[in-house]
Amino acid sequence: MIVFYYGLLLGFSLIIAIGPQNVFILKRGISGKNIFIVCFLCASSDAILMFFGIYGFEILQGKVKNIGEFARYLGAVFLFSYGLSHLYSSLKKETRLIIHENSNKDSLSLYKTIVICLSLTFLNPHVYLDTFILIGAVSRNYKDNLVFFWLGTSTASFVFFFLLGYGAAYLRPIFSKPSAWRILDFSIFIVMCSIALSLVF
């Protein structure tokens, strides 16, 4: 069962970084429109991609010699670099996300909302790096409990996206403060570097 929590921690650490997908969910949450659809689509898409990343990597590992070792070290380098980028962000003074006051003035239809949501998910190259390379490489450490690892990473997506969507109105005043972003970024740095070390040693 502890593998589930490892997956949960990794999932949260990767997904919590602010990107176009998370910004879109924040704005949907503030507007109060189509929140459930957006959160469900994003979380379900992540869960599907992570499933193929974890089990696809396991199949590929059996067919391509030394790919496991290569992916393990590549994943460690990426995680460490990713962590350092958040350390750098934690040392900066400006706020990383600004949501304008008119964000609640919304004119997007349900169809446009779904199209934008899926585009931000499947046309983002980073999502494939995270789900196929990074999560696939880390899952190698838990090959006897892959289903629990996948459930952990998937649960992180569902919990985070729904909290972000429905809690956006409450999060806005908190993350309007640069200090909140610095604390968040430094926490991500610690988690990413810890996972990177676990891949190597």
UniProtKB/TrEMBL annotation:
Q: Where is the signal peptide?
A: none
Q: Which InterPro entries match?
A: LeuE-type (IPR001123)
Q: Which UniProt keywords apply?
A: Cell membrane, Membrane, Transmembrane, Transmembrane helix
Give TM regions.
Answer: 6-26, 35-55, 70-88, 109-128, 148-171, 183-200
Q: What is its main location?
A: membrane
CC per GO annotation: plasma membrane
Please give, as recorded in its UniProt entry, the membrane topology of this protein. Multi-pass membrane protein
Q: Which domain of life is it from?
A: Bacteria
Which GO-annotated molecular functions does the record name?
amino acid transmembrane transporter activity
Where is this protein found? Cell membrane
Q: What is this protein called?
A: Amino acid transport protein (LysE family)
Which organism is this entry from?
Candidatus Competibacter denitrificans Run_A_D11
Which lineage is the organism of this entry classified under, starting from the top rank? Answer: Bacteria, Pseudomonadati, Pseudomonadota, Gammaproteobacteria, Candidatus Competibacteraceae
